[in-house]
TrEMBL record:
SUPFAM superfamilies the UniProt entry points to: Acyl-CoA N-acyltransferases (Nat)
Organism: Truepera radiovictrix (strain DSM 17093 / CIP 108686 / LMG 22925 / RQ-24)
Matching InterPro entries: Acyl_CoA_acyltransferase, BcerS-like, GNAT_dom
Superkingdom field: Bacteria
Name of the featured protein: N-acetyltransferase domain-containing protein
Domain N-acetyltransferase, first and last residues per copy: 194-367
Lineage per the UniProt record: Bacteria, Thermotogati, Deinococcota, Deinococci, Trueperales
Length: 367
């Protein structure tokens, strides 16, 4: 077993291609677009303005059997007063390759003076985070990670322990709980004159500024949260604009002032699953048919600014998203992820009739 750093374009191509070879036969795996994966590791990615990443390949007699990224995010450490390195983009054929890869990350982190390694983060908490520890027969929703059942076991063997769980909740838009949610939302709106309106893409720049302000205001006290830089936020907005359905992206307003946000995304993974990571020669056809293929959505952003929490505005936003989703033909949706100790949000989502069905776990090891 040999673990070595990625040093060339050919190495990077092998790094990107590995999961397509490892997971090709797994019905739960969704192949990401290769062009999107290449962009993640481009030096033009604004993440690298505040972070350093070293990619590693594990090889066995010339065959690539694993990969991992060692990540030093200075912005995270400055924000939280931590002294951490992260690992991400982890893939391993077996336990031997997994342990060798993690040892390489740990050595790299020690050389940089870091006191612990946390992960997975791909490459940060603002992206796909955690290893799935249950519900392995379910494909991931858009922008959520996926892994085989063995990966958490490999971490345990390497001495990593749980640092935080992240919950995913499943909504069935046709469940009996929807009528109960409607009554709860109506009760809140009788008490407070909160109004819900959709995002207006014709005013994209102005709406984007509101999203950024609400997102930072609602999440700034969350465990592990690091604000997007302006360049990162702009890059994310360009990406999401390609798939967003403005009918299921809404603001909550009180006296004309935006106080909450719910942004649902059509589950483009239902299309990507048919494309094998390529737009040509046939992937483009599936993209053109995406309205016929997609019948579910993910709610990655649901938040209310601090001064208006515990008033039930989250229920109003969820109800409006479900109402609009049903009208647009979506049959189900996932709300993810929610910190395990965010009791107010988890209780609100449960009250809305969702089922907690999947858990992602972040692990950490002291060096």
């Amino acid at each position: 077993m040999n673990v070595r750093p990625v040093v060339s374009r050919r190495d990077l191509a092998r790094f990107i291609e590995l999961p397509y070879a490892l997971h090709r036969g797994d019905p739960s795996w969704v192949p990401p677009l290769r062009l999107t994966e290449r962009a993640r590791f481009s030096r033009k990615n604004p993440f690298f303005e505040h972070a350093t990443m070293q990619l590693f390949l594990a090889e066995d007699r010339g065959r690539t059997v694993g990969r991992v990224a060692a990540i030093d995010d200075r912005l995270h450490n400055d924000t939280h007063g931590d002294n951490l390195a992260f690992f991400g983009f982890f893939e391993a054929l077996d336990e031997t390759s997994a342990l060798a890869l993690l040892a390489a990350v740990e050595a790299w982190a020690r050389a940089r003076g870091r006191a612990a390694v946390r992960g997975p983060a791909n490459p940060s908490m603002n992206d796909g985070s955690g290893f799935q520890i249950d519900a392995f027969g379910t494909p991931p929703y858009v922008m959520m990670p996926w892994n085989p059942p063995a990966y958490p076991r490999y971490l345990a063997r390497a001495g990593y322990t749980k640092v935080k769980d992240l919950y995913a909740w499943l909504f069935d838009h046709h469940s009996a709980a929807v009528s109960r949610l409607e009554r709860l939302a109506a009760r809140v709106q009788r008490r407070y004159p909160v109004r819900v309106r959709p995002v207006d893409l014709k005013r994209f720049e102005a709406e984007l500024a509101i999203v950024e302000r609400l997102y930072n205001g609602a999440w700034e006290e969350n465990w592990g949260f690091v604000r997007y830089t302006e360049a990162e936020f702009r890059a994310l907005a360009r990406e999401l604009r390609l798939i967003i359905d403005p009918e299921i992206a809404v603001f909550a307003e009180l006296a004309g002032e935006p106080v909450g946000l719910a942004l649902a995304l059509p589950d483009i993974n239902q299309v990507l699953k048919k494309m094998n990571g390529r737009i040509v020669p046939f992937g483009f056809v599936h993209l053109l048919r995406r309205r016929q293929l997609i019948d579910q959505a993910r709610l990655p952003i649901l938040g209310v600014v601090k001064e208006h929490r515990h008033k039930g505005f989250e229920l109003v936003l969820i109800h409006e998203i479900i109402r609009r989703s049903r009208a647009r033909g979506y049959r189900r949706g996932e709300c993810s992820w929610i910190l395990e100790d965010n009791e107010a949000m988890n209780k609100g989502i449960a009250a809305a009739g969702a089922e907690r069905y999947k858990t992602y776990r972040l692990f950490q090891k002291a060096l």
